Amino acid sequence: MGPERRRTARYPFVASAEVVHEKSGIKIQTQVSDLTVYGCYMDMINPLPKGTSVIVKIFTDTDFFEAYGTVVYSHPNLGIGVTFRDVNPFYSTMLKKWLLAAMQAKRHVEEADTLGVKESWNTTIGDATLTYSTEGVVGRGFNHNCEIKRSDQTTRLPAIQTTDRLTRDEVEKRFAPTVLKHTLLK
Known about the structure:
Layout: E1 11-21, E2 27-35, E3 39-43, E4 53-59, E5 64-75, E6 79-85, H1 89-114, E7 116-125, E8 128-137, E9 141-149, E10 154-156, E11 160-162, H2 168-184
C-alpha cells in the first residue's frame, strides 16, 4: 500500500455518520474522525473497497452534512478515506463552519502543548532560604528544583522529574526529607 496524497491539511473532527453504498443502498453507521474541505476519514471495521461510490451523511448535535463521495483508500479493520463529490452549496457552508471550528480547536491544543510552565517561590526555615522552582511543558514533563541558601553556602538538591505538573505543596513534600537533613542537621 503506497502513501496517501492529501491536497490539504486534515483536522480532528468526531461526529456520527452514515455511509450509503450508491449501487446497493446499504447503509452503514459509522463515525468521522478527520475532516478536510475535500473529504473525511471514517472509522469502519469492515471498510468498503477503494473506488466505491457512496453517499456520506455526517451528523452533529445541531447540524447535518451530505455529499456524494468516493472511497479513495481503505484500511482493513480501521476505516476509509472518502473524497467528496458534488457538494451542495448549503452543505459546503456547513463543512466550512465545521472546519473552522476544528482548525481553531487544533490550534488551541498545539499552542497549549508548546506553552512552557515556569514558576518559582521561596520559603524560609531558620536561617535558610529555600527557593523552589518548577519548569516544563505539558505533555513532555517537568523538572522540580530546590536550592537551599545560607549566608555561607548554597546547596542545589537533585531535581525531581515528573510527567505531570506538581502543585507547590507536592513539590515541597517531595523535597521535605532532603531539606530537613540540610536545614535542621547543620
